[in-house]
Amino acid sequence: MMANLQPGAPFEYRDRRHDALGELTVLPDEIICSILENLAPRDVGRLSCVSSVMYILCNEEPLWMSVCLKLAHGELRYRGSWKKTALYLENVPVNYIESDRSPLHFDGFNSLFLYRRLYRCHTTLDGFSMDSGNVERKDGISLEEFNCDYDVKKPVLLDGLANAWPARTSWTIDKLLLNHGNKAFRISQKSAQKISMKLKDYVTYMNIQHDEDPLYIFEDKFGEIAPGLLKDYHVPHLFQEDFFDVLDGDQRPPFRWLIIGPQRSGASWHVDPALTSAWNTLLCGRKRWALYPPGKVPLGVTVHVNDEDGDVNVETPSSLQWWLDFYPLLADEDKPIECTQLPGETIFVPSGWWHCVLNLETTVAVTQNFVNPKNFEFVCLDMAPGYRHKGVCRAGLLALDDGPSVEAGMIDLCGKDDVGYSDLTRKEKRMKIQQEDGLPQHGTTNESPRYSDVQKRDFCYDIDFLAMFLNKDKDHYNAPWASGNCIGPREMREWLFRLWVGKPGMRELIWKGACLALSADKWYNCLRNICMFHNLPHPTDDQKLPVGTGSNPVYLMADHVVKIFVEDGLENSLYCLGSELEFYTLLCKLNSSLRNYMPEILSSGIIYLEDGSFTVVPWDGQGLPKVIAECNLLPGTYGKDSFPFGLWSKKQYELRRAGTSPADLACPAGSSVIWPYVITKRCEGKIYAQLRDKLSWKEALNLASFLGEQLHDLHLLPLPPFSAEISDIGRKVESKFDDSCMEVLPGNSKISAEWEIFIRALSSKRMGVSRRLRNWGDPIPDALIKRVDEYLPNDLTKFLTSSFSGDEANVEENCKPSWIHSDIMDDNIHMESCSGDSDCNGKAVDEVVGNGSLNGHKNEVEEGISWRPSHILDFSDLTVGDPLYDVIPIYLDVFRGDTSLLKQLLQSYKLPLSRWTSQHESEGIKTRRLSYRAMCYCILHDENILGAIFTIWKELRKAESWEEVERVVWGELNSYNNFS
How many domains are contained in the chain? Predict the structure, then answer.
């Protein structure tokens, strides 16, 4: 950064900072560099021409590393420098990239921040003196000793566990390169993009890089990429019990990783996801570990916990920066537990422990996280909705305002040259978020090296202590689920139920975990009171846990199924039950054959908690029970024979919700203790999700025909009258929309009032589609997200009306809106058994029906038994709209993209899905393609349908246009001629 002085020239220091930066000179270098990291490469290049200091700042390799990683997606090849790599990604001409132009040098500019970063980039750790540390070392430990002295208690270094592994000799860089050099593995980086490198390219990068925080391979899919690697090691006997084993491969969260990294790389301070425990075996090289017990936030680390969903983010310096800049500030009594891990050694990291890892040499390691009886309750607690308990689990009582003050014993860091600007400003940084019950929360930083007494006081990593910080007033089925949780709410419910069925000897422990994660005890108390009111048998211990993966607690009891509606709060629950009851009443009135394929509704009502006791009120969907009327959820008055929460009211509610912020949709006071419920007759058999891989092709075709027939009957049912009273509600709702929301229907549109509601709700989703897709992210290709607005029509009424001159076709004459189920998925289709040597259309064989099983049958599929579809379940998501909507979940979830099954369904459906006759068909008008309409519905869907598409058709992750995705996924629809 300094120009060479001419011999004999007098030295005159010139500070060029002010002249070169102008008003930006008031900003520290770190802030300026942080701003530059958010610019596009071309903008960084332009800024480098502004002044000498900007030239220096804009040519820093760490800056270009950050810029490059934001650009990169998929497979990356390092080009010798990060600037060159970024320019290649920007398609800059090669002759410009490879220019031999020498860099410019300037005097008169000094930056401690840049110097320290340069030092970290080029320092080597060969000469660092690292002792063996104070983590206890054990050799030949028994399982009993491990469980008694270490599990969930303290870390331990274990020797001898990997002595017999082939990986001890085959997992060297040279041998891995020889055997797997062309395989691409995911690399760690701070970008949200998923980036991988071929092993041979990564090794080249590793050997020539000079990064302060080098990339390292951290691949959880290494067993799929290189299956032979799984044969080179086995899980040590101490860690073989893992409760996540009951989940299928696609449901199980990432749990094992291949780790390869050069000197200076490593994992910065963190607590393992979901408070799982971990073991890590080193195969070559040396690693330095630092660990703190739960609740003791390391110096320089800030914990942020989102006050809406509890998602935890940790702001931390890199591993190398912490060891160089923060570790020397610690008094001896505040230093972490440390050790240097050698090849062949396995370190155990207990649940909730903070740890930081620095690679002292090039290392290769394998690690796995696991859940066992000792940490199971901690994992369930961490999954639970809410935020305060998550902060306390990681930051101890520092997460509470009424706990010890983090500022106690604060030292003055301002005078220390080896602390960066962000570290200085963080000492005053402490988020304070107000909880509903008045106890403020968290976001906590540790800046003082003398804080051990403050952090230890009164904190206990005990499940009963930590559970006190749960917000138990929240409906844990209904509250937002943290995006950082290692599994989603559906997978969590599936996991707990599989454990419940598969580990009957541990049901007391599993019940405790379910109470923490799902408030299972609250819903069980509701169930008992419902059963008592309706004179149903008391639920047995086997029936205590809700079944299924849905968003409402469902209980199977002898001949009955009890469902308690909690999803999205009271108002949504009332509309779900109200529309289902209206629909069932219509089926009975018309004596529709569809009634035979929908579970019989036996009773329904409202249960609410008042003064600590439950009250049950019967309700058939008609009229308004007093407890609901007092909530003021509906404008106007309703007769006792009307369905105030029926189909059209539900559609208006969906419209209002689509155009309203989440804060405005908060449940009225007291609604969190009011729940609708329904009791239906239990079907004998199994859900299709349990039988998918067991059915023959003939049985699958039979299912497709069945679904086509039921959709035919469903879509022909008459809709309830669209009353003036409902229209008046709609006008009141629409008056709350802003102008932009109201410009979704052209003024000369002649679509019916029924269709208008459908289009308005769809258009409100159209307005926020880019943001929603970005939030969903991978596996949706980023290139397609950027082009989604140009693919979707601006005017969605083109789905319903013709754009030909003089053609003002009325929608009612072509295809009316219909009842749609909207959620026919593999867990909402019920199958019954029939003997293998009889017609499967005959009566089911009673002999195969067993008691005490999951759904009326033994959990395993018996030999010689065939299966036929018997019922469609869960009509709570009933709505009104385009019949094509119902094809989407069936094709993607039930058929998993099998076009043969889709053809079979359409042959049985025998109703029009297109609104156009043959003379109106035109390839030039894309809105007329059934495939285009289906693709648009997938994009605009409330659920992440696109995630399913890019999981089924993985090759489409490289698609360059939405038209390509449409053609592959939905092209078969265009050959459907509406009638068979």
Answer: 5
Amino acid in the structure at residue 639: G
Q: Are residues 301 and 346 in the same domain?
A: yes
Return d(Cα 78, Cα 631) in angstroms, integer. Answer: 62
Concatenated DSSP letters of 827-892: TSEEEEEEETTS-TTSPPPGGGB-SSSSSSB-SSPPTTEEEEEEEE---TT-EEE-THHHHHHIII
Partners of 185 in beta bridges? 197
Strand 74-75 vs strand 195-198: parallel, antiparallel, or unpaired?
A: parallel
Angle, CA of 381, 384 and 389, to the nearest 5°: 65
Q: Is 828 exposed, middle or buried (0-12, 13-18, 19+ CB in 10 A)?
A: buried
Task: Give residues with Cβ within 8 angstroms of 394, minimum separation 6.
Answer: 271, 294, 295, 297, 303, 305, 312, 352, 354
Neighbouring residues of 847: CB distance < 8 A, sequence distance ≥ 6: none
**Residue whose C-alpha is closest to residue 356's, from 424, 287, 305, 420:** 287
Q: How confident is the model at residue 245 (pLDDT cuts 50, 70, 90)?
A: very high
Residue where a domain terminates, one of 110, 128, 152: 110
State pLDDT tens for residues 727-745. Answer: 544 444 444 444 444 444 5
943-953 confidence digits (pLDDT tens): 899 999 999 99
793 Cβ neighbours under 8 A, 6+ residues apart: 799, 927, 936
Question: Are residues 328 and 418 in contact, defined by beta-carbon separation less than 8 angstroms?
Answer: yes
Helix, strand, coil abundance in the chain, percent, nearest 5:
40, 15, 45
Q: Are 158 and 139 in contact (CB under 8 A)?
A: yes
CATH number of the domain at 104, please. 1.20.1280
Instruction: At 959, list the tokens.
Output: 């698609």
Q: What angle do CA 177, 183, 188 make, to 5 degrees?
A: 90
Q: Give the tens place of pLDDT for each residue, 368-381.
A: 999 999 999 999 99
Place of tokens 């903008």: 43
Mean predicted confidence (pLDDT) in 875-903: 94
Question: Mean pLDDT over residues 26-49, rounded?
Answer: 93
pLDDT above 50 for 573: yes
Q: Which two tokens stand for residue 877?
A: 């998501």
**Phi, psi of 46, deg, nearest 5:** -65, -40
515 vs 513: CA distance, rounded Å: 5
- List the domain range (segments joined by +) for residue 862: 829-872
Cis before 779? omega within 30? yes
Taking a C-beta distance cutoff of 8 angstroms, is the pair 683, 856 a contact? yes
pTM of the complete model beyond 0.70:
yes
| Token pair in block for residue 687 | 């859900």
Q: Is residue 721 part of a domain?
A: no
Under a CB-based contact definition with an 8 Å cutoff, are residues 339 and 134 in contact?
yes
Length of the chain: 980
Other Cβ atoms less than 10 A from the Cβ of 772: the count is 17
* 417 has a pLDDT exceeding 50: no
Edge-to-edge strands of the sheet including 560-564?
554-557, 560-564, 674-681, 601-610, 613-618
For residue 278, the 8-state DSSP code is: E
Q: Would you say residue 802 has pLDDT above 70?
A: no
CA–CA dist 26, 38 (Å, integer): 19
Tens-digit pLDDT profile for residues 100-116: 678 888 888 889 999 99
* Residue 361 sits in the same domain as residue 298: yes
What does R_g of the chain's alpha carbons equal in angstroms?
31
List all residues 6 or more positions away from 393 whose beta carbon is below 8 Å from its beta carbon. 271, 275, 294, 295, 352, 378, 381, 382, 461, 466
Name 820's bridge partners: 879
Which residue in this structure is represented by tokens 């800049």?
325
519: tokens are 């408030």
In a domain, 124, yes or no: no
- Domain identity same for 84 and 101: yes
Give dist(CA 942, CA 957) in Å, integer.
Answer: 21
Same domain as 881, residue 867? no
> Is 256 inside a domain boundary?
yes
